[in-house]
Amino acid sequence: MELDVFVKVVDVLTQNLQVSAGKLQIKSVLKRSSQSPELNVRKSVGDLTRRTSVCPAGRHVTAAEALQLGIIDEVTDHNAVDAAVRLAQSVAGKPLDARRISTYPCPRPPDSDVVFEKVMQEVRRDARGAIAPVTCVQAVRAAVALPYAKGMEREKELFATLFTSGQARALQYYFFAQRAVGRWSTPSGARWDTSKPRPVRKAAVIGLGTMGRGITVSLAQAGLSVVAVETQEKQLLAAKQAVTGMLERGAKRRGAPLVLDQIKYGRSVQAAADVDLVIEAVFEDMALKKSIFQQLSRLCKPGTLLCTNTSGLDIDELASQTQSPELVVGMHFFAPAHVMKLLEVVHGPRSSPEAVATAMQLGKKMGKVSVAVGNCRCFVGNRMLRPYVMQAYFLLEEGATPEQVDQVLEDFGFPMGVFKMSDLSGLDVAWRMRKAEGLVLPASAGESARIREGSRYSPLGDLICEQGRFGQKTGRGWYQYDKPGGRVAKPDPWLHGFLEEYQTRHGLAARRIDHQEVLERCLYALINEGFQILQDGIAAGPEDIDVIYVLGYGWPRHRGGPMFFAGQVGLDKVLQRLEHYHQVHPDVPALKPCSLLRRLAASGNPPISRWREILQKPRSQL
Ligand SMILES: CCCCCCCCCCCCC/C=C/C(=O)SCCNC(=O)CCNC(=O)[C@H](O)C(C)(C)COP(=O)(O)OP(=O)(O)OC[C@H]1O[C@@H](n2cnc3c(N)ncnc32)[C@H](O)[C@@H]1OP(=O)(O)O
């Protein structure tokens, strides 16, 4: 059992006595508080806000805080069962009524309604459409307002509503999906239970841009010695400052020691000569990455794993630059890299089982959930992002604004809409990719500006980048920010004017686009690509895709992930809407329903647990 989820809650005799192992994080403390929000309030209503912050958010509390909150009776550094037995014996035969939660006084302060309204507003905002946190507050409120028995009745009703909701099914599915991705396998036969990871004690990060900085922080926080390399002096100084800030804030927040000394900074890749593993995180430029892999292959000690944080370039092409292609894998992090919990581990056709296992285990050590994926352009997450982003650009061409599109996606439950998210990750990343693919044409392209190989293309992202607008990092992108590196996105009148001018230039008539169309076109295009990825065998199953989207892009967990969501909407409905949009936009191949979606819809919307089986069946049997 993992230490941070370990808690010994022993209900002895009266269900009131609990003993907790000391110094351990108590996760399942909510066993008690969520089942009985009564407890949260009956001991004291003075700190309603603090108590309700534990229950709706599922916030983990330490043993010490749980003791302070009255959730547990005792904290022990010794054997929790022994301590529980001792505690039980000490009260055996004595009257316990005074200890029963139901007998605790529950004063109702005059301002409790105001407090609850405020808490409810905050919880609603943070819940992003999840119903459980809001219901928790309702239950706590009932506990304060009603006598104990009635409060319990109300809580039961609320619980029953939650229990039978689609959101409960989505959350249960997601819980198991996250565990399932740990049991990875690759088409070449490597498996989680037969592949042995190598120990990694010292790692290097090459390139200290936005991603390299976050990766350095995550490695250091995981206890590794890190060599952080940046060839540009100015960039190195800025990176050092940023990394230090992130580590300081992290240490403060987690109450953990500051690990600045674990990082050595350098300006040459030579500094990586004696490390066990390298993560390259330079610009998205194949030629540059190739030259770095050639250098690393020559200078690193034998057996060093060479990893790349590319957003979507060919892992095998990079592996071919090295003397040991079996030691090359992708370790693809998500922005902000020290925060987002996802790691895509990309196995090339030549990656050894040991290399994959090592990257998977290192991700876990860094506090990430590692998902093994196959090598293709943009892998899984970003490959699905392409049609999603492209639809968003098309919507702008047709008359929507970045704010409108983002609002719809945020109402759906994303922490950031597609434009804010693009500004965060850097618009130049995808621009470089599109340039390398030959998609970026000169401004003089005229009519062909909006067509590539017979299909509709929007150059909007390219035009924005040509203005030097790379998002948060330059202080301008789809939004404006108060300074380069600023984070508060504000609508930008320049951008609105630019969109109008673009529409005029291309003879596009702006129209009113409703909420449903924005949502369906963005999400169904993304989901359709997910089916294609499954069909191509790039992801082993729908769970992998769902975990990638929840942890890498903030897809709302209570909606299970894009593939689960498609099943919940109904595959036939998703198919029918895609057919509709493809009919309206026949020049957009991403809207043409994937054949796997057709097969699944034709087999009667089977539960997601059966998709793998259907995927593996030869078509003739269907
Ligand atoms: C053919 C053409 C097609 C066109 C396009 C093609 C595209 C295809 C390829 C694309 C390639 C692009 C590569 C992209 C890679 C990515 O990584 S995509 C980005 C994925 N990330 C997300 O989607 C993030 C979504 N957002 C969130 O999850 C949250 O908003 C948040 C960022 C985690 C913040 O949440 P919040 O609860 O507000 O957090 P806080 O508690 O306030 O802060 C936690 C830490 O996060 C830092 N932080 C917060 N906001 C930002 C921000 N805007 N930018 C950077 N960092 C942020 C914050 O500072 C905290 O960190 P510390 O300060 O260090 O403690």
Structure description:
This protein has helices at residues 30-35, 37-42, 48-54, 63-69, 80-91, 112-127, 131-145, 148-163, 166-180, 210-221, 233-254, 286-299, 315-319, 353-365, 381-398, 402-412, 418-425, 427-436, 460-466, 493-505, 515-536, 542-553, 562-569, 571-584, 595-602, 611-616; strands at 19-21, 25-26, 61-62, 74-76, 202-206, 225-229, 263-266, 277-280, 305-308, 328-333, 342-347, 369-374, 451-452, 455-456. With 622 residues, it is an alpha/beta fold. The chain has four domains: 2-164, 2-enoyl-CoA Hydratase, Chain A, domain 1, CATH 3.90.226.10; 202-378, NAD(P)-binding Rossmann-like Domain (Rossmann fold); 415-505, N-(1-d-carboxylethyl)-l-norvaline Dehydrogenase, domain 2 (Orthogonal Bundle); 515-616, Orthogonal Bundle (N-(1-d-carboxylethyl)-l-norvaline Dehydrogenase, domain 2), CATH 1.10.1040.10. An eight-stranded mixed sheet has the order 7-6-5-8-9-10-11-12, sandwiched between helices. A two-stranded parallel ribbon has the order 1-4. A two-stranded antiparallel sheet has the order 2-3. Helix 6 (112-127) packs antiparallel against helix 7 (131-145) and helix 21 packs across helix 24 (571-584). The longest helix is centred in the middle third of the chain and has 22 residues, at 233-254. The relative contact order is 0.08. The model is unreliable at 1-46 (pLDDT under 50). The protein binds ligand LEDWP2DD.
